Amino acid sequence: MILVLHAPTSPHMVVEFVKTASVARIARDLVIVITRPGGLAAQSGVPEAWKHAHKSGLAFSVLPELSDAIDLYKPSEIYIFSRTREWVDFKEVMIGSNTMLIFPSGEQPLGKEGVERARGVGFSEFSKDLGPVQSLSIALYIVMTKTSLVKNE
């Protein structure tokens, strides 16, 4: 599964995103991608996140644009955690090993390039979009729960 944090400017957000992914029991099956980091996120957040990802054995990359991540990883499905478009509950979607989940930082505009194929997702239990680290935590929990249900059957 490809997890993309898009357009962060906060170094703390970048590091927490990577740390959250690294403690999931499916971490070895994850690819973490940071696209369009800006400001302090690019200067200090990305190096610190890379160091943590490396120590944790996570695949990690930084790319200039979201479209670059889509071109490079060629995901089978793309979901974006955003309610600014038509969206479905994340619990209802099927997630495969080549699925890309995009978590907008909310700190910069999303833009249109690269998101044409993306389907909007969210969590029906919440009235608004959550932050990227919170959404990542819940999404990983849902994916891992579905995975263990499949393995236990």
Write a compact overview of the structure shown.
Helices cover 39% and strands 22% of the residues.
What does this structure look like?
- With 153 residues, the protein is α/β, with parallel strands linked by helices.
- It has a single domain, classed as SPOUT methyltransferase, trefoil knot domain (Alpha/beta knot).
- It is 39% helix and 22% strand.
- Strands 3-2-1-6-4-7-5 form a seven-stranded parallel beta sheet, with helices on both faces.
- Helix 2 links the parallel strand 2 and strand 3.
- Helix 1 packs parallel to helix 2 and helix 1 packs parallel to helix 4.
- The C terminus is likely disordered.
Query: Rough shape?
Result: globular
Mean pLDDT: 90
The rounded Rg comes to 14 Å
* Tally of strands: 7
Pick out its properties.
153 residues, alpha/beta, Alpha/beta knot, 7-stranded parallel sheet
Task: Record the SSE blueprint.
Blueprint: E1 2-6, H1 11-22, E2 31-35, H2 39-56, E3 59-63, H3 66-73, E4 77-81, E5 87-89, E6 99-104, E7 119-122, H4 132-152
Parallel strand pairs: 1-2, 1-6, 2-3, 4-6, 4-7, 5-7
Helix pairs in contact: 1-2, 1-4
